[in-house]
Design a protein that fits this description.
Oligomer: homodimer
Number of helices of chain A: 10
Largest sheet of chain A: 6 strands, parallel
Helix content of chain A: 25-40%
CATH architecture of the largest domain in chain A: 3-Layer(aba) Sandwich
Strand content of chain A: 15-25%
CATH topology of the largest domain in chain A: Rossmann fold
Radius of gyration of chain A: 19 Å
């Protein structure tokens, strides 16, 4: 497994892989890897000859009052995990490389980024789409994977790939959860033991939403109200947003007649967590 | 010479060219070709095995009150001109192909697009950078050329290519002029014979700016004032902007101490024309 620390080396590595006839898979991450990331890696690996993982805590996707400075990092452990999966190369750029002096170019997926986390975190998706496009241009993958936990991000990136005519297949990884249901996230590290307990209300409330859906409820407001009630009743939990929107366009719906996503963001203490459930898919995740 | 009418065919053509080991040159245009475009084509042709020209009047770079509907078109003549230069493929996408329903992704080069034509034509460069990035992704060129007449566009696109880590060389073509000095532009077609005469003040005023610079004037305001006076004294000419800014960053300067560009946009009758002169380069264009 190679650790690649410059853009030029990463491009040369991918070019050499291509010349040898290999296909390239890619999982972009911000590090502090967990089973969610590893499951994406295995999923990509099954489809491509080579697997590249990037670890880059991307400053442009953090707002001024967000957790950029304290975002958890553990490169030695990340490296071990990547090696255990059989990653071929880890790409480790620095902010100064990615955004040198005079950097001015940003990609916006408009409309899809207006609501949900886009409304709660202005500029967040502009940072995400920009860095992902740059990473795609550097790594030149055939396949890249993103998790469903960041549901809006996934839809935004799928839109970007289509709109910008990129030759690239996006794989969607299911949300990977702890045994008790908490969606895996690098930010779970911020939680105290007590908060960790309270945070279970997120997945439990989504389970309640699924039950309501299965029992025939099709009114988004009824489902959102039930979820909101559960979360609001939980200590240290403050709702950022709870919305039930069209699963593809992320737009408001009057009634659930095709797949819809219940997406939520909740602050548990000072830690903002997100989770979601898609209702009306063949397979109810 | 092949006429290629779909994105899929264009991608397949470029892929085949690459597999054969050929390098690809690219000149994106809005058609109604003139010697300025042809000189770009010849310049690229000297550096690559294959030459692709796109002809696409890009709706997203026109403002609501601009000349999209009446922008001049003459595909038969354009095709002849391309054949005369030895173009290998002309790519002719439609707006519906480039911007299908649900299209939402736009590229912005911030900062560089705040002034000059960016201020006068809100959204213009967002359309330019977006379509050019899409065309780059479709045609996959090694080399692409843009003319210096659209000076700000050239700087914006150079910035985009660097910022987004594209593997692509941008060639700059000098402004090609009619015998009497008028910068070639597809929009010159809009001018009446009388306006055509008045429009000569643009290149003449730039010549005056060069003289002032050569005579030692380094105060931007003095040069801008002289140019403004000439243009304002000419019938049917209405100044949109006249600015003398840093040639690379397009930022305001207090004194000319390194290359600077005098850029101007003038309405001659209803036709908006642009032109520019770079001062302080080795070669005074």
């Amino acid at each position: 497994m190679q650790l690649i620390e410059t853009i030029a080396e990463m491009k040369a590595w991918s070019r050499a892989a291509r010349v040898s006839g290999a296909t390239i898979g890619f999982v972009p991450t911000m590090g502090y890897l967990h089973e969610g990331h590893l499951s994406l890696m295995r999923q990509v690996q099954a489809q491509t000859d080579k697997l590249v993982v990037s670890i880059f805590v991307n400053p442009t996707q953090f707002g001024p009052n967000e957790d950029l400075a304290k975002y958890p990092r553990d490169l030695p452990h990340d490296t071990e995990l990547c090696a255990s999966v059989g990653v071929d190369a880890i790409f480790l750029p620095t902010p100064a490389m990615m955004y040198p002096d005079g950097y001015h170019t940003y990609v916006n997926v408009e409309n899809l980024t207006n609501g949900l986390c886009g409304a709660a975190r202005p500029g967040h998706f502009r940072g995400v789409t920009t860095v992902v496009l740059k990473l795609f241009n550097i790594v030149d993958p055939d396949v890249a994977a993103f998790g469903r936990k960041d549901y809006q991000q996934l839809q935004v990136l799928k839109r970007m790939v289509v709109d910008l005519n990129l030759d690239l297949k996006i794989l969607e990884g299911p949300t990977v959860r702890e045994a008790d249901g908490l969606a895996m996230s690098s930010r779970n590290k911020y939680l105290t033991a007590e908060q960790r307990g309270h945070a279970l209300v997120l997945s439990k409330s989504l389970e309640r939403a699924r039950e309501l859906y299965r029992s025939g409820v099709r009114d988004p407001q009824e489902i959102v109200a039930a979820v909101k009630e559960m979360i609001s009743a939980t200590p240290q939990c403050q709702v950022d947003y709870i919305e039930l929107v069209d699963a593809q366009h992320l737009s408001a719906i009057g009634m659930i007649v095709k797949p819809a996503v219940l997406a939520l963001a909740v602050k548990v203490g000072n830690t903002r967590l997100i989770d979601n459930a898609v209702l009306g898919e063949d397979e109810c995740r």
